[in-house]
Each structure stands twice: as structure tokens, then as C-alpha cells.
Design the sequence.
């Protein structure tokens, strides 16, 4: 079994579509987050292990616990180098769960980025800091009086996908994919094979071979594979 560092290094060389195809082959068809969760900048990429937080709506607009900021801060301080913080809100409509000050804290510890199905503010400053953020949208409103801290380091559902602490995430312009930690090695091997097949197809197509000929050639070389390459 490869170590975490090797797994992350190999994931860095892959992309979300190849990972999804590999998960499909294992019967894991719904591991990509909702399409509304997208990067603040198109070039952003996230690769890392999940650290989770569950957020919940304030009991009523404008009411908040006096220690609300402290509780959030304690959870942020648990995030380590190379981890992706996942904040699940259930798509709460008001209030940003993330901003520039929280970004500064996670950048300091070397976190790999943030994924949330909630809203984010201070976006221009987060972009300027170069911190990868994938979110459902933007809002200038603070979380205080709108969103409360719930729990940390538990299984959450974010963007329609179950995320457990320690699962692996890869995010790029196509979206965010969550890979269960117990299948990550198998997924990586399949995705790497997929990448090699795509490189072979590109080479054939550039040489002028028709799409039908490429498909037939692929099936001739892989008679047991009843699934032809996609995209």
C-alpha cells in the first residue's frame, strides 16, 4: 500500500474526469459534487485529504452564540498541511462561511484548499492570496447571526456527496471528485491507465485515423473490455 505522500503525488498528475471514469468502473457513480460547486478562478486545483466541518443555520436571523467565532477557530486549527477543508452547509442561502482571515490561517499551515457547498466572501483577496477555493457562490454577508458551527471531523454530505475525514479530493475546472480512502489506490491505477489510453488515442487521431478506426483498434487490443474510451 503506497503512503499518503505517494498517493497525493500521483493524484497531482491526474484530473477529475479520469478519476470519475475510474470510479465508474468500480460502480461508484455519484462521487462528483454538484456542478454548482466551482473554483473561484478557472486555474485552481485542489488535491488533498479531507478534514470536515458541518455548519448549520442560526436559530433565527441575527441570533448567534457568543463563542461562535472561537468554535470556528478551534476547528480551523485542526487542519494540517496538505489537507482540504470541507465545510458542508446544506446549501444555506445566507452568509459566507469563508473569507480572507480564515484563508490566511489555512495558508499558514499549508492546507491544500477549501471546498464548500456554502458561500464565500472577500473573494478578490482570496484570489490574490493564491488559495484554492471551490464554492457554491459568493456573498458579502458574514456568517455570524446567519450560520452556526455544528461539528468537526465527522462524515458530512457536501455537494450531494458523502465525505469522510481522510477521504481524498481532487478538484479542477470540471468540478470536485471525492475518492473513498479504501479504494484510492485502485482508482489511481485505473485513472493512470485511462490517461495512457487517451494519450494513445490522441496520437492516432492526430495521424489522421478516423474515430471508428480508433475504436475498433482499441477493441481489438482489449477484447475483454466492453467499454470503449469516453470523451
Sequence:
Amino acid at each position: 500500500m503506497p503512503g499518503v505522500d505517494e498517493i497525493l503525488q500521483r493524484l497531482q498528475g491526474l484530473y477529475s474526469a479520469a478519476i470519475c471514469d475510474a470510479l465508474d468502473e468500480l460502480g461508484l457513480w455519484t462521487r462528483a459534487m454538484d456542478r454548482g460547486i466551482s473554483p473561484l478562478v478557472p486555474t485552481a486545483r485542489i488535491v488533498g485529504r479531507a478534514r470536515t466541518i458541518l455548519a448549520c443555520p442560526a436559530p433565527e436571523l441575527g441570533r448567534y452564540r457568543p463563542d461562535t467565532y472561537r468554535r470556528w477557530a478551534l476547528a480551523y486549527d485542526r487542519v494540517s498541511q496538505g489537507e482540504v477543508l470541507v465545510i458542508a452547509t446544506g446549501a444555506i442561502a445566507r452568509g459566507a462561511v469563508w473569507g480572507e482571515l480564515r484563508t490566511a490561517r489555512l495558508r499558514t499551515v499549508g492546507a491544500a484548499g477549501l471546498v464548500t457547498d456554502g458561500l464565500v466572501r472577500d473573494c478578490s483577496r482570496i484570489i490574490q492570496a493564491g488559495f484554492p477555493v471551490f464554492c457554491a457562490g459568493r456573498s458579502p454577508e458574514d456568517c455570524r447571526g446567519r450560520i452556526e458551527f455544528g461539528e468537526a471531523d465527522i462524515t458530512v454530505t457536501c455537494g450531494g456527496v458523502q465525505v469522510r475525514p481522510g477521504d481524498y479530493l481532487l478538484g479542477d475546472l470540471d468540478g470536485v471528485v471525492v475518492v473513498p480512502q479504501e479504494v484510492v489506490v485502485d482508482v489511481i491505477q485505473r485513472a493512470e491507465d485511462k490517461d495512457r489510453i487517451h494519450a494513445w488515442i490522441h496520437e492516432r487521431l492526430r495521424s489522421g485515423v478516423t474515430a471508428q478506426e480508433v475504436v475498433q483498434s482499441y477493441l481489438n487490443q482489449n477484447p475483454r473490455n466492453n467499454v470503449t474510451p469516453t470523451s
User: Anything to note?
Assistant: The two ends are 31 Å apart (CA to CA).
